[in-house]
Amino acid sequence: MADKIVHFDIAGPELEPLSKFYSELFGWRVKDGGGGYALVETGELNGGLAESETTGVNFGVQVDDLQAAVDKATQLGGTILMPVTDNGWVIKAQVQDPAGNTVSLIQADQKPGA
Predict the structure, then answer these.
(1) Under CATH, to which class is 4-107 assigned?
(2) pLDDT digits (tens, 9 = 90+) for 86-105
(3) pLDDT digits (tens, 9 = 90+) for 11-41
């Protein structure tokens, strides 16, 4: 079975317009998560909105072997942005694909966005 997308983040310079846009466009529930971050409930896949100087979309993919996925990403031309890290609520790593897009790799036995 293929690895599945389990989380997303959408970043922009101002959190309030992002929150309004996505909640009104799609009916997503958006609630303040603190520190320039909002939690998003879509009914299916949950994610977040982040206040950031850079814009973009990051998606998280759940993998069975986190380090093996990081190693494979670098073999395929990706760059490690964040090595395997346990931040207390999820164990993940971040890589950049050859086009510069960020992908979060999330250990399979974790519950992202908890």
Answers:
(1) alpha beta
(2) 988 889 999 999 989 999 99
(3) 999 999 999 999 999 999 999 999 999 999 9
Domain ranges of the chain: 4-107
Contacts of 53 by beta carbon, 8 Å cutoff, 6+ apart: 13
As a three-state string, the secondary structure of 74-110 is HHCCCEEEEEEEECCCCEEEEEECCCCCEEEEEECCC
Q: Where residue 114 falls among pLDDT bands split at 50, 70, 90? A: very low
pTM: 0.79
User: If phi over 0 gives left and psi between -120 and 50 gives alpha, with beta otherwise, what is residue 80?
Assistant: beta
Task: Quote the CA–CA distance of 23 and 39 in Å, as a whole number.
Answer: 11
CB 61 within 8 A of CB 106: yes
